[in-house]
Design brief:
This protein is of the alpha+beta class. It is 42% helix and 22% strand.
Length: 240
């Protein structure tokens, strides 16, 4: 990590070495020097949340943001009649709620833990203090936010350019444990949330699954079996 008293940092925050390696893949911290990253995270803490926990509700003051170490979180808005509209589904390594926090605003959505989850919770007060105390860190964070914005643009581009089948294939690719041959695994989310994650309706997801059967992808409940992982990798290049 860095020479900034690694043991004290881990004891204070709960951020293990493996967690830190994951954090450095996040656009907010990618390319940031270890000393700067750890200073920003001194007031953060790793916490576990069981399925069904509400992290915050729409309209609540945005005084913290989150990075997912393990698990999944859904963000949604609720109509007066109780109907939920899924806005986003966040997965391992991803951050959320940072934009609302930085503008001293309110959370625009409600969030709920969909599987048992480990989160890094980063309070607004601590990170803003570090940014005020060290202008160099503030500039680094500004560059990091720019990378984060480019990531969002790429996600939107993927939703508009790639077909539903390609988006589903990309999602499954991230879950396979081998580069070739066959594989079996459990879906981390129910299919309605996967559809929300991929920006499609549940019926569109079902049609995409049917198309993937032609290359040996089969589903039974949450279980997925893939006959030829290489064929799954090729679907994004082959499908028109």
């Amino acid at each position: 990590m860095a020479d900034l008293n690694r043991e004290t940092f881990e004891r204070r925050t709960g951020i293990r070495s493996s967690d830190y390696d994951q954090l450095k893949q996040n656009p907010l911290f990618a390319g940031m020097a270890d000393d700067a990253a750890m200073k920003l995270l001194l007031d953060a803490s790793v916490r576990r949340y069981p399925r069904g926990t509400s992290l915050f509700v729409q309209g609540e003051q945005a005084d913290r943001f989150f990075i997912i170490m393990e698990g999944w979180v859904k963000g949604f808005r609720q109509a007066p009649d109780g109907h939920e509209s899924i806005i986003a589904v966040f997965g391992p390594g991803e951050s959320f709620a940072e934009a609302a926090m930085f503008v001293s605003g309110n959370f625009p959505i409600t969030t709920e833990i969909v599987v048992d989850t480990r989160l890094l919770v980063i309070p607004r007060s601590g990170i803003l203090k570090q940014l005020r105390d060290d202008p160099d860190i503030a500039l680094i964070m500004l560059a990091s936010m720019s990378r984060r914005l480019r990531g969002f643009v790429q996600q939107v581009e993927q939703l508009t350019v790639k077909s539903a089948t390609q988006r589903l294939a990309s999602f499954l690719e991230k879950l396979v444990g081998v580069d070739e041959g066959s594989d079996e695994f459990e879906l981390p989310l129910d299919k309605m949330l996967i559809a929300g994650r991929l920006g499609m309706q549940p019926e569109t997801l079902s049609r995409a699954l049917l198309k993937l059967r032609s290359i040996g992808v089969a589903t039974e409940g949450h279980k997925v079996s893939i006959k030829d992982v290489a064929a799954l990798h090729a679907i994004n290049d082959d499908e028109e």
